[in-house]
Queue: 2 jobs
Job 1
Amino acid sequence: MKAIILSAGEGTRMRPLTLTKPKTMLPVAGKPIIQYNIEALRDCGIEDILLVVGYKEEIVKDYFKDGSQLGVNISYATQSKLEGTADAIGYGKDFIKDSLITLNGDIILDVEILSEIIEDYEKSKPDTLIVLTEVEDPSAFGVVELDGDKIINIVEKPKKEEAPSNLINTGIYIFNKDIFDKIEKTEISPRGEYEITDSLSLQIADGKVVKGHKTTKEWMDIGKPWELIEINEELLNHIEGEIIGTVEEGATIHGEVFLDEGSLIRSGVYIEGPVYIGKNCDIGPNSYIRGNSYFGDNVHIGNAVEIKNSIIMENTNVSHLSYVGDSILGSNCNIAAGTNIANLRFDNKTVKTTIKNKRTDTGRRKLGAIVGDSVKTGINSSLSPGVKIGVRSTIGSGVLLYEDLESDMRVLV
Ligand code: TTP
């Protein structure tokens, strides 16, 4: 069995973080999203992996190269136009040997789900195996109708009361070669894409065996910025602490803390794990690093800074007397002294943010800011809960930013 991972998307809901990186390369708990799946496939004995790339593909290729560092063989196919999942999976036609496991690059799966479905496929040898999961409201998903474990119909985004079941398609498949015949016959959908669910409907109509495999294990789908915070939190809860860098006398470490080589924790720093700190970071003195925080390589945190439940990407500085809570800071940012990111509304209501021009309730009572790469804040600036700042923008000293800022902008008063 070989594998294909779809990673060509633009990740528009994840902007501004995806203005400079593909979504699948955003880091969580120490590595890019897609690396979790590559390693899980490898741990299930799958060595040949095709990455379908497109948007900012050079970042993926430069990072993984031929995969040998991870013990796998990675090859690449460029999907130059995002023409849909069937089009993307179609690149597997000349790559497949007997069967092909297909994953979206923006989910994180654990090894257990993978080994469970591979075992089921090998035992029952259907033409296609689709992984299903049960949800309370299936109306935003592809919902399946089953006869035993055979899928007899897939309905896209039905009204809740008209849904044939509560079982939804997770987008994880194992195919044999028949799917490529159906992909070739798939017509463009009303939303202008070649959709793999249409190819699956052609398989069902052709009497092929499309088996549903219901899983109760967790799979995580990452589309919106706060989901990155949530997945980071979930993954950090499974890390094992290890101190490779240096901890000065007078620093306190509780819980699981991973400190990579070349990093320094200065005196007076108080860390409550789980916390993951990359290479060559410099933390403190006297800072408070709270649980579920992840720092990429070369992050500098100054004196008396408090960080909580946040992702801080590589080469970013947070200067003295700042507070960063429930937030994501991109790479190469400079957060000046006394910058405060609010993460809780006065009225205690859930935080809203804007996704593709639409106000969206995040469902989170606590959410700070989502900050793109290379942003600078001035001293004593304040950011309101849920604001997003585009890449390379500057917030002047003392500014209270209460709405989103586009990229390459300056707010001085
Ligand atoms: P989506 O979630 O539909 O797209 P996206 O990741 O670009 O995000 P957004 O909706 O925020 O713009 O795609 C699911 C996965 O499939 C994702 O990993 C990208 C990948 N994909 C391709 O590789 N090629 C395609 O043509 C499409 C539609 C998706």
Job 2
Amino acid sequence: PLELPIVKAELTDAPLVPAPITRKHAAKVVVQLEVTEVVKKMADGVDYTFWTFGGSVPGKFIRIRQHDEVEFHLMNHPDSKNPHNIDLHAVTGPGGGAASTFTAPGHETVFNFKALNPGLYVYHCATAPVGMHIANGMYGLIMVEPEEGLPAVDKEYYVMQGDFYTKGAFGAPGLQPFDMEKALDENPSYVVFNGSVGSLTGDNALTAKVGETVRLFVGNGGPNLISSFHVIGEIFDNVYAEGGSTANKNIQTTLVPAGGAAITEFKADVPGNYVLVDHSIFRAFNKGALGMLKVEGAEDKKLYSGQIVQKIYQPEGSTVQEMPMSKTPLAAVASSKDMRLELGKTLYAQNCQACHQAEGQGIKGAFPPLAKSDYLNADVNRAIGVVAHGLEGQIKVNGELYNSTMPKLKLSDEEIANVMTYVLNNWGNKGGEVTPAQVRSAQA
Ligand code: HEM
Ligand code: CU
């Protein structure tokens, strides 16, 4: 069989995309993508610990051709606290590659795939808890060009939406931790393009000249929201809906699903500022999902006569109202140890199983076991503290070192008592009953 030529993939950070593929034949494309966990700006005065494919959110743009054979390398930087993997929607195979790329900090994994279908595809991390990894920014786009390539345009850009869940409200300053409860409620503090408020405004605005054709590769990492993608003042001449092969003509707003994409194309006919939004419009003006395209060139008064006032398009700033927090429903109160075990079982499935696994066996190198855990059984009050406050730093469980992070879980004393009683009475642990009073005194 013929050997394919070997090509190293060009990878770019948003809003840039790699050059169109001019090859008329398949190649073996080597992709090297490095995962890092980095503190970066979410908004002015607000930082966040993003988990990234390549150092930024969204992850590096990957561009290949249909029938290419890809040799995919996933490296996880030694400074990472968590294992990661990758599910590329362009891959046909188990987990889209996730099953082959579970990568501990300081490790590298490799797998091969053949790009069978053309289209614009999302990739994302699929390590438990999956929602948390995606919510921290672990997504990007891979374009598989059809054999004949995409029609030539003058400008191409990469725009990807994501929703973020911070402990503080929109604009609350400082390094903001992830908020699991807001994520479960699908109630983001931020909805942004390209990883931060202002990533596509002011000096960062996209640009084009009058008469140029513009293509936007639009993705949505979610994890929760569907985007109603719209450019104020433009009509998309073509939309390859959901990133597929058929163009819809003359579209105002296109839905981009969580974990989906769209290619939009238009000609810049009239100079001025065009605002990219999620047309679920509070997200745009109050949560950050707003970008800008500056079109420069000669006016044609026949096409558009008026003057565009930039002021009215600016975000409303810090005058966001804080909505009252929704009350969590009254949790069931256990009146016996049996009832505690019953309630604890459900709590375990909902809050712990994603990491510590169904039989408490954990995942070696990533999540310590709770089954026959010497760490747990030696000091139950210490374990209660772990559940109540989370845990960071190195610990040794059954002879294995773990140096990772367990998030603080929003559980009541009653719930912690129930889940700990369940854990203590299963998988070879030492038994007993934990009461809410013990949970309170363990933390006193
Ligand atoms: C550590 C319990 C949820 C990740 C621990 C430990 C306990 C524990 C007792 C101490 C080590 C051991 O005995 O094995 C629980 C319970 C949970 C829960 C009862 C649910 C209520 C989670 C979740 C995650 C997680 C959702 C993943 C996001 C970890 C990690 C450590 C740990 C990474 C080690 C931390 C370090 O290296 O410092 N957990 N856990 N746990 N847990 Fe959890
Ligand atoms: Cu991850």
